[in-house]
Design brief:
single chain, 2 domains, Four Helix Bundle (Hemerythrin (Met), subunit A), alpha+beta, 7 helices
Length: 372
């Protein structure tokens, strides 16, 4: 089915991307039913699966009891033993907190994905723009994602506390080694000191593993939440129009190329002689261009993850100077609307250069999207 004011042929729309300027031909407006067709489930449409969390349970090995020897070194050994017991108790509490946060993240993620799946299922079959039921579900999804984010904040605090214990364990290991050189010790002191040093070193290794796994959990979950924030923005755009899009455009680009940074679009290039990817013809109110726009840019980014775009507001030169000025203003507003739609779909504004021009051959305001 062709969308009004934004129709094109697949063969013209997608020539080989090895060519420097892929283009689309645009026909005149097609009137008729604008209900989006039913589509097969797209795994990208459902919220991104939560990345795995670590599974290790970090349980300290305990501290071997000792006997008083009455020496200065023996007293130092007893003091270090008590410090190690307190350290291991702290590690146990931190491990319990980590396991609790992991469980909470999994449960909250399941609730979030369930809400998102319900919204996408309704959008897939088509619904009214701004459906209040979907708006309410969207707000619930936002709250669930906020709870996930707060758990990550708590995990960051936990990582900081674990790091402090790592510093303490290093100090204790050095203290145990230094105690061997203190004079006035008996053989029992050195025997107990050797056991204590081994247990302190094992505890230090356990803390390092705990910190590493906690840090990895934070890194993966932070990326996941950032991705879902972008997908929620796109879902909001879908609810506004009553139709389903897919994954966030910027996430598509990053996943396709493994990019961490996206360059700025810079100044717009001359569009003379170039054929646009999309022409949105605003020849009537509420032109439903969003689905076609998303499909186009999404496919471009799959093949050219670093792609930049030129968005041009085109106004007709009809009537007197006052009418031309009014057309220019309307065309610019339409271009701003299209740019806002692209942003809601996840495309950073820095990848789109916006400009304006007039054309004598057109009869209504248009917005053209070009591949840089």
């Amino acid at each position: 089915m062709w969308l009004p004011a934004c129709s094109f042929s697949d063969s013209d729309f997608w020539p080989s991307f090895e060519d420097e300027e892929p283009a689309a031909t645009v026909s005149s407006s097609v009137q008729g039913d604008t209900t989006p067709p039913s589509r097969s489930p797209d795994p990208e449409v459902v919220a991104t699966a939560q990345p795995r969390l670590g599974t290790t349970n970090f349980i300290p090995g305990g501290v071997t009891p000792g006997q008083q020897t009455g020496t200065f070194v023996g007293a130092k050994v007893a003091e270090l033993r008590q410090e190690l017991q307190r350290l291991q108790s702290s590690i146990g509490q931190q491990n319990d907190e980590l396991q609790r946060l992991r469980s909470s993240l999994v449960n909250e993620s399941q609730q979030y994905h369930g809400t998102i799946a319900a919204v996408n299922a309704r959008l897939q079959v088509g619904t009214t723009p701004g459906n209040p039921i979907l708006v309410q579900q969207f707000q619930s999804a936002q709250q669930e994602l906020d709870r996930l984010s707060k758990d990550i904040d708590r995990m960051n605090l936990l990582a900081a506390a674990i790091s402090n214990n790592s510093t303490l364990s290093s100090y204790m290991s050095e203290s145990a080694r230094a105690a061997f050189s203190v004079s006035g010790a008996v053989d029992e002191d050195h025997r107990q000191l050797a056991i204590l040093e081994d247990e302190t070193n094992r505890t230090a290794v356990l803390i390092d593993r705990l910190l590493k796994e906690t840090t990895e959990d934070i890194r993966r979950q932070t990326t996941y939440i950032s991705t879902e924030r972008a997908n929620l923005n796109l879902l909001s755009a879908g609810i506004k129009t009553g139709e389903m899009f897919g994954g966030s455009l910027v996430n598509k680009a990053v996943l396709s190329a493994g990019l961490n940074q996206i360059a700025s679009a810079g100044a717009p290039m001359n569009t003379v002689g170039r054929r646009p990817l999309v022409v949105v013809r605003f020849d009537r109110p509420d032109v439903p261009y969003q689905q076609a726009l998303y499909a186009t840019v999404s496919k471009v980014l799959e093949q050219r993850p670093r792609a930049m775009f030129d968005l041009v507001a085109v106004a007709p030169t009809i009537g007197g100077q006052g009418q031309i000025t009014q057309n220019n203003r309307k065309a610019r507003r339409h271009a701003e609307d299209v740019l806002r739609s692209l942003t809601e779909m996840g495309l950073p504004p820095s990848r789109v250069a916006v400009s304006a021009k007039t054309e004598a051959q057109i009869k209504s305001n248009e917005v053209h999207l070009y591949l840089r």
